[in-house]
Protein: Protein FAR1-RELATED SEQUENCE
Amino acid sequence: MITTDLLKISDNQGSSCGDSSRISSGVSNDVSSGACSAENEGAITSYSMSRGGQRYFIPTCGDLNCIPVKDMVFESLHKAYKFYKKYGQQSGYTVRKSREKKNGENTLVLKHFVRSREGFNDVNDGSFSNVVKRRRTISQRCGCKAKIVFKYTSLDRFFVLSFVEKHNHPLASETGRQFLRANREMSLGLRTLVFGAAKVNIGNNKSFSFAKELMGGYSNVGATLRDFRNLDRDLKCYVGERDGQMMIEKFKVMHETSVSFYYAYDVDPARHLMKLFWAHAIGRRNFEIYGDAQSFDATFDTNKYNLIFAPFTGVDKHDKCVTFASCLLSHESVTYYSWAFGHFVKAMGRNHVLIITDQCPAMKVAVPGIFSSINGLVASKHRLCMWHILQKFRVKLGNRLCKETDFMEKMKIYIWSSNIDIDEFERGWEAVIKEFKLEGNK
Structure:
């Protein structure tokens, strides 16, 4: 499968010899042209010669019902264009709309659809003009005369007036048709895949590979990696600086759908989102059951917005972590923590018995100021997280003392014991400090 996909890509890059043209009368394979030798080209390409020595290529369409025929009638011009576009996709070329003619009543009576390589690009004569320069790309126009003309008839219908089938250039091969612009389209399913991948920080390369596995091959995706990247770029441009407003609008819809969903936010004078708190119905229900003790961890940072993500977490009866609420804060200060804690009490209706935090000086002030008995509620107890404390042992004392001695094992006897009183803990602590001669260590 991988080898086949690589061959498909390589066949379409840097080569104009691969095509799928139908053999016409008077075929001659002994004429060379350009970089393609007559021997190699004759194996994969067939062409007819005009009297002037010009080669013409006639496409081969697998479905005979898709080949236009003169005097064929269509119910609308849109259906006629779709029919000719489908024929081009199966034949190995793309089409585009061209000139038209209208009568005195401004009714369209004649419409031309041509090959995308029809005509020639304008040649720059070196003169200066006010025309905006377009991105420099390789010109693909070669004056191809292949076209189809539809004429208006009664009952708002159109019929094929003329159809020129011959091309003056080789057509795309069957393996290269997937890269034609007409065959590349980001369907609703692919757009949903790119959008969903972007929400969970999955890049375009991985999402394109995932689409290939789902479709069974690169040729079945219907788009290229560049199309995936362009759509991701357009999504980011559409969001722009409105991401905060989009999040607030989503929370408004969630609150209208479920009254139990609680949210609050605050912005600065420049209308930038600085504080955001939310708690859904399941989280508020979990707090009623398992909200006696909870942890507030503010060590998570967002990589793009420089906001602090701090969840309110508890433990259920299965020893699994459950989230009660969450908040996004732009600063780790007493004011911001107090704002988040105040909305937590307002959303839950009561204080928790115990809250565990790290050794943050701002939390040391905000926790007793908000989770108090001012409003007639039971004041919460504030405790420090043991994991954060033990992590600092190696930083403060060094790895030699913590790893090469039994210092940590003797210290944990008194740290992790919940059945000793305060005096016993103090005596055990001082004994370990004295044994390892740490009395003068700050």
